[in-house]
Amino acid sequence: xxxxxxxxxxxxxxxxxxxxxxxxxxxxxxxxxxxxxxxxxxxxxxxxxxxxxxxxxxxxxxxxxxxxxxxxxxxxxxxxxxxxxxxxxxxxxxxxxxxxxxxxxxxxxxxxxxxxxxxxxxxxxxxxxxxxxxxxxxxxxxxxxxxxxxxxxxxxxxxxxxxxxxxxxxxxxxxxxxxxxxxxxxxxxxxxxxxxxxxxxxxxxxxxxxxxxxxxxxxxxxxxxxxxxxxxxxxxxxxxxxxxxxxxxxxxxxxxxxxxxxxxxxxxxxxxxxxxxxxxxxxxxxxxxxxxxxxxxxxxxxxxxxxxxxxxxxxxxxxxxxxxxxxxxxxxxxxxxxxxxxxxxxxxxxxxxxxxxxxxxxxxxxxxx
Length: 369
Prior knowledge:
The protein is of the alpha/beta class. Helices cover 33% and strands 22% of the residues. The strands form two sheets. Strands 1, 2, 5, 6, 7, 9, 10, 11, 12, 13 and 14 form an eleven-stranded mixed β-sheet that branches.
C-alpha cells in the first residue's frame, strides 16, 4: 500500500466549492462519468459550423443563460461572460448563494483575449455600417477583456479586488497565483477564481496550425469558478473541499527546453509543498494528444514526479478549451481525489504554444486538517 505523506505547509489557497460548465454538461458529474468510464470522446461535438476550419467543435450543450440568471440585463452580453456568470452562480451556491455577510468578495478570471466574436464583430461594424459608423454602444463593453470579471462582480456583489489575467491555456494557473497574492494582501476575504472561454470560428482560426493538424483536435468551450480563501482565516466558516498547495508559472527558455522548464516547475511546487517526488498520486495534464507540447508534458512528469502516476485525460472529452482548460483540470482533479487514498496529491500541468509552462499541486482536506 502506498504511504501518503502529509505536511504542515500552508497552502496557497483553500477551495470551498466550485461551479463548472463543459461540453459534457452542467456540473462536474457528467464529465466525471465520462472520464471514469473512458466514454465517447465525441461528447458535445457537432457538425463543423460554417466559417470554421475543418476541426471538431464542442460546446456546452443546451446552454440557456436565462434559465439561471433570469432575463434582466443579459440580452447584450457575450457568451464568454454568460458562461462565467453561470459558473460563478453555481460556485456561490455551494456556500449558500453569496459571500458571507461582513466579508469582502473579490474576483479574478483567466482568459486568452476575452470574447473574440465581440471584438471582431464590433470592429467589423465600424467599417460596414452606414455613416457615421453606427455601431451599437451597448455591445462595446463586451469587447473589453475584463468584461466577464466586471459583470460577475456587479451581479454577485463582489466589492473587493477585480482582475483579469490573460495566459491562454495556463490562465487558470495564473489566476490562482493572483488570487493567493490578493488574499494575502487583504484585498479580499473570499474570492471567486477561475476562467471562461467560448468556442467560435474566430478562435478556431487563431489556433496554431500544429494544433489544428493534430488528429482528433477539437475546439471547446467551458467555464469553471472556484470559491477560495486564505487557509487559516479563523473567522470564515465555510465548507472546505481542498487545498491548492502550490502554483508555479514560468516562461520556457526555448521550444527545445519546454520539458526541462516544466520539470523545474514541478520540482518547485513539490519543494514549496514540502513533498517528496513520489507523493503525486495522479496527474491531470493539459494535453494528452500527439502534439509536441503534450509530449513535453509527459516527459516532464516522467522526469520529475517519479513512480507510477495515474493520468487523467480530459482534452479528448472537452476539446481545447483555451483559458478554461486549467480550471477544468482543477475541478476534475478535486473530484478524482475524493476517490483516492486520504491525503493523496494531484498534479496539474499546462503548456502554451508561446512558451509558458505551469504546474500546481492539489490535495483534498480531511476532517482532521
